[in-house]
Amino acid sequence: MRVLIAERVVLRRLLSRSFREEKFGAFDHIVRVVAADVKQVEAMLLAGGLERAVARYLDPDIDDLEFVLEDAESIKPAETGQEARRLAIRLIADCVAMLRLLRLQADVDTAPFKAKEPLHQVARWLRKLRPDISQNLWQIGRGEVSDLAELEADAGTRVELYMSALRSSRTGPINLPTPEVVAPPPEAKRSGKPAAKAETAGRASKADAPAKPAPEPIENSFPVYLRTEACFNDYLPTFRSQSNALERVALRERSWRTRELLARTASEGIMAYDALVDFCRTIRGYSSARAAATLLGFDAHRARCMASLARIVANQGLSERDATDALEIYQALHAIAPQALRAIDYIQFCILKLARGEIDAASGLLEQSKLEQDNPLEAALLFSNILRAYTRQDAMGGANSFEHLQPLNLLYRKYGMEPVRRRESANPFSGLHAGPLDHYINDGPKVTVLMTTYNPTVDMSVAVNSVLAQSWRNLELIIIDDCSADDLFTTVKAWEERDPRIKVLRQSVNGGTYVAKNQGLAVADGEFITCHDSDDWSHPRKIEHQMETLARSDAPACSSQWVRASLDLEFLLFSGSGFLSYENPSSLLYRRDAIRDRVGFYDSVRTGADSEMKHRIETVFGKSVVEASEVPLAFGLVHDGALTANTLGRGWFSPERRFYRSAWRAWHDRIAEGSDDPYLPLETLPRRFEVPPGIRPNRPEPKPEGHREQFDVVMISDFRMGGGNTMSTLEEILAQNKGGLRTAICQVGAFRKGFFHKEFIDSKVQEAVSAGLVEWIDLSEQVDTKLLTIRYPGVFQFADRLESGIQPETVMVILNQPPAEANSLDRRYDVEDCRANIDRIFGRQQKWAPIGPAVRDAIDPASAIGLLTESDWVNIVDVSEYSGPRSGFVGDRPVLGRHGRDDYSKWPETREAVFQAYPDTPDFAVRILGGAASLKPLIGEQVPDNWTVLEFNSVRVPKYLETIDFFVFHHHPARIEAFGRTVIEAMAAGCVAILPPSFRPLFQDSVIYCSPAEVKAVAINLYKDLERFKHLSKKGYDFVCKNFGYEAHSSRLNLLGVGSRVIGD
To answer: What is the pTM (predicted TM-score) of this model?
Structure first.
């Protein structure tokens, strides 16, 4: 218990108010006392924390406590003892909050909540204390109490009584003491004696106290406020161990939710984001910060989470205060746990300091960071920015001075390259050049440089001249104008007359930069191809270094680094990697014929095709692209007109880019498997895969203001998930498509374990989109739909900040899983949380439909009053895809099988039960689709000789099911199997299903029910009786056709007002 307290003692008021009001002495006093004797000061510290963090848990009848606090503080006390009285007010005011937090923690820890009734009695007892605490507040505010020791004693008495009751509630029947908090007698005030002594004289002993009746029982219901905390606590280990992956999700999707999750993870569930930032603001830079961290149990996991949080806030840019908040977190972390700061943190930290004008502080951080030893390039870039700030501040050399580039030039010289210099120009970027060159490459193979432009808003001369100034002299520069206005094209065309190596092409229709590049690639004469953006500057050794690197390597292509810079050459953080320098996507240099013959051309889209081309080359050749040089070979100008300005940022991709990346990755997977062709011709219609309309070359005209797309059904889920839920969603998509309904899917990420590393949606979902069976929309799009189905409620578990442009007429939440497993140790979502978030986001009444009786039974009736539908939303299959009833057996012995996701919970609990359900004897054959790795702890590394194990998705399910007679599915007893989609697939294929009795409410008498120990006998008996086997096969098939076919789905959509013709008409 003492450890539990010590982790939470200095979180809110004793820190934030004391530091904010510069009352450092009070805090230092607390730290010293804690170091000497934790137990003595438990009361003081308990009373000092967490008002803000636990405000949501306080009962409504505690509100007057806050008013009392405000009134008490508004009364001016006498000068004598002012500090003591003010601190005392805070101690008493927070006492109730802290006690309630401990009750909350105790409830969560007491899984599976067997002691909830005694704990409710403790809660009632605490409420009885509230009037006495309020009275004390009034007395303090009026100056009637002046001795802090007395207040400490009162608080200590209450806490000791509470802790005693709490301990007993965990071990047996509770015996609550009578709360007694007595105000100091008038004598203490008149005599001026210490209040603690007056209390001893004026208060009756506990033994003499009049007996009071025991507290009345409190209703036996699960505390509402516990559900969110219990759910978060189950997610907490995942957040701790995968904070870096959570960070990538946050940046990729600009998710606000991850801030709250990481803040609470860093504080062990205590503080929300705002509270954590406030905490950081109070402790930064003071000598007591380390002591505070020690008391909080601030370990390496929490420090890493705080560092991730700082990076997220600094990079997302969702709020005007983000830079300030990130700086506060970094400063606190630097004071508490500097060892948690990595290179990318020091880079970000220095940039934030420079933005605030704290140049000396940024310089000091750079020295502390050890970047110069570990990453000299990043150190040089940061040092250049620091020197730039000094020169601008001191007017040394003026705004156009290049002196600040000297740190970077030292690196160029180190690698045998000319330093960067400047010519007279309107701005530093326009004056960039390097030289003079002491040698050139005149006899190398020709390199074609492709440069596209469209209505250029910046001077192209920087880019063009930097290409013409390359030390690699045998080159041609093809400038492709993407249908600019006539007057601007005239300017572009003029370049052709300045150098015979320049060729200018013009597109008749604007189709985007990659369509234009393809036209240049089609006419290129060079043996090698590379690209160059029209607003970048390249070092004159860029092509030379890349050609030399490629010649020394067997890689199929070569790229180089760049940095992003402003017009006055401040180096900007632009990449989600956290580094100022990173790979230049347009720098890819490759052999023309080798790539054009096997890979073809760029994908004809408006964004992201350079990354696709690189990955396609790597997939086809089976080798990675090699990177040239240890220094940036190009500077990329950052300006408002840049192509990437609105589609990507620091780790963020626009929804269109995210969808495109997911689409091409699925195509590349098929290429790697040998099931698809990697070659893209010059004209890429029809497309190999679907892309969002906004990035197509012939993108549609902008919709008029206020336009809203109309859909019949929109389906929300986390489509990165494989397995049953995704397959069930796809079946509904196919049924709706056959019924003539317009359907869209919308990706919302869940925070379940294992999802963080999955960036792309499931390949089968991607294929459905590419085939035109369903459309892809973003949550923010302006859309109307007759029906919104949420296929996994857990995506809205931590969705307090999510917003949506989707306006549904009806909201149906499909419960594909229960909120928790039977043992309550794996909580997926909380009904109340998700319900409230869905209400807020979509503003429509919602109905929750379980997919089967098992899920319905697992829902707490108290949380689902008026919420559940009368009938279940069962899964469906297209029975025409399966082989139907059997006429015989597949082999000379019974063949048992199962398919599905390989997870321990989907197998029997013990080794004995596994081999009972799936025999290891040669008189049976066992065929498993989906893998069996999770069985290794039970059965060892090797599966039995009579087993055949196929990996997930390695065989089409209908084809696999034709190879087994009996579908056996016995799972872990703690698992609540939501539906058993794989069962109806097996029945549609004519298999006889052998299941545990828990499935009877769903499948009635269409399958056989037995325990694992009975499976062998059931299978043997049926194998000996072909007619009975054929009868059961037909019975199961008919049951599926009637209850789980597409017609059933069409009927329930009609009941919801979504018209669909009957499938098959």
So the answer is: 0.72
